[in-house]
Write a structure and sequence with these properties.
19% strand; 7 strands; 7-stranded mixed beta sheet; 45% helix; FAS1 domain; alpha/beta
């Protein structure tokens, strides 16, 4: 009985995947499944892989693609003991879809600066981020807030940018990844924030 139900469910999932191929929804759907699965893992230790390899292997490819477009891939492979706040694929897609034509040009022009704004030059697990605001070269100050059992961060110069940390403390060979549900925009970049 249980085997029959499992077989039916597997067939339904297979049909769902096939039906999404023509619409271009397959990869985001699979990526979302991977991200949900990782969020439930107790052990998120990928200390044998560098940050870029971990982003790609866990399905956070849109931020990895932005890093590549900014010509910063080797920078993040060589970096040591950093914290990287990584927006989900869905957050990046939504953000870019809401930008005006002019803001997309600004986004592209300032992409390296924007990417580095998501980084702290020291590796911090969420527990350490709770203790005090983190200051750094690219991110002047990151403030962490805990509300309803969930963690949020924001640059203190732009408190409206509070964004939810959806997956915490993914450990890599050269730093720690914290997954967030929005893109952080440096205050000095003249983009009208669509949120």
């Amino acid at each position: 009985m249980h085997r029959t139900i499992r077989h039916i469910l597997n067939c339904m999932i297979g049909l769902l995947i096939i039906s999404t191929l023509d619409n271009g929804y397959l990869y985001p759907m699979l990526s979302h499944i991977v991200q949900k699965k990782i969020g439930k893992l107790e052990n998120k230790d990928f200390s044998h892989k560098n940050i870029i390899a971990v982003l790609n292997s866990l399905g956070f490819v849109k931020f990895a693609d932005l890093i590549e477009k900014a010509k910063l891939t080797n920078y993040f492979i060589d970096a040591q003991d950093i914290t990287l706040f990584v927006p989900t694929n869905e957050a990046i897609a939504k953000f870019l879809s809401m930008l005006s034509h002019e803001d997309k040009k600004v986004f592209k022009k300032h992409l390296p600066q924007l990417i580095k704004f998501h980084m702290i030059h020291t590796a911090h697990e969420i527990e350490n981020l709770q203790k005090k605001p983190m200051r750094d070269t690219y991110t002047p100050e990151i403030k962490l807030l805990m509300k309803g059992g969930a963690f949020y961060i924001a640059p203190t110069k732009d408190p409206q940018q509070f964004t939810h940390i959806t997956i915490t403390d993914i450990k890599t060979k050269n730093g720690i990844i914290q997954i967030i549900d929005n893109i952080l925009i440096p205050p000095e970049i003249p983009i009208k924030k669509p949120y």
